[in-house]
Amino acid sequence: MQPILEIAGLTKTYKGGFTALRNVDLSIRKGEIFALLGPNGAGKTTLIGAVCGLVRPSSGTIHAFGEDMGRHWRRLRARVGLVPQELATDMFEPVLRSVNHSRGLFGLAPNPALIEEILRALSLWDKRDAQIRTLSGGMKRRVLIAKALAHEPELLFLDEPTAGVDVELRRDMWKQIARLRERGTTVILTTHYIEEAEEMADRVGIIRKGEILMVDDKATMMKRLGRVEALISLAQPLAGLPEFLSAYPVTLIEEGAVLCYRGGEGGVAGTAEVAELTKALTRAGIDYTGIDIHESSLEDIFVNLLEGPDGPSAEAAA
Questions:
Q1: Where in the numbering of this chain does the ABC transporter domain appear (predicted)?
Q2: How many degrees, rounded to 5, is the angle at CA 138 between CA 135 and CA 142?
Q3: How far apart are CA 94 and CA 129, in angstroms?
Q4: N or C terminus of the chain with fewer C-beta within 10 Å?
């Protein structure tokens, strides 16, 4: 199946010499939820701006729906929705009028039933006559989503959609995004909340300093880069590691009172090796009083990649 979005060699260098994007290659599948993770200044918003026509790339190509965005931007842009990071909007307009106006900007005929459905799904229908400026920050962000959905985009960008939103509203938005996928909408989101990617995304991309470090299916990434850490509290401290433990990725910490295991690929392999380790301790007559096992989350993987000097190895990079 042809990807809905294909980015190749995309680079953006500003007049002052700052390079926000460096030779970015990215392919997005139709109907997926793709999460782009990266710290502030990594290039996430610049990448979205380039696809949505807000930023002119220095080099590279962008194809959407099988066509060149550079050559057919005006026509293709109508099939793309954007929820920007900034909350700036027509603050003195009532919610309903503002959302209807967004649909009209793309030359579409009024569709009151659709707009009502969108507003109800976002818990905005009761606020339809309220001026946007009177709404809370979370509700204003919901209005931005409603405006982006008003022209029924096939490809939707969400740039930090839940920034500044409380946990309850955030989870409501997650449900709305899941409903969009059920309708066949392709969703690309950037986020600082890694639990959002872990909760919703089919695939995850990690960007740092304008470069894509890795793109992979979420489950595959966690299996390939995930690790297990086990802290085994010993009944009696050890002065050093016994020879039989040399086969395991373990170290002694806390003055020999705790045996620390770090290894395994993903949860299953690591957990199985910890079980073997505890059996080996028992056979050797080394008693322990407790085990604390922690499996890598997507956040652990993300932090490890960003802290590495060069990101993942060539073998690990997608």
A1: 5-234
A2: 90
A3: 5
A4: N
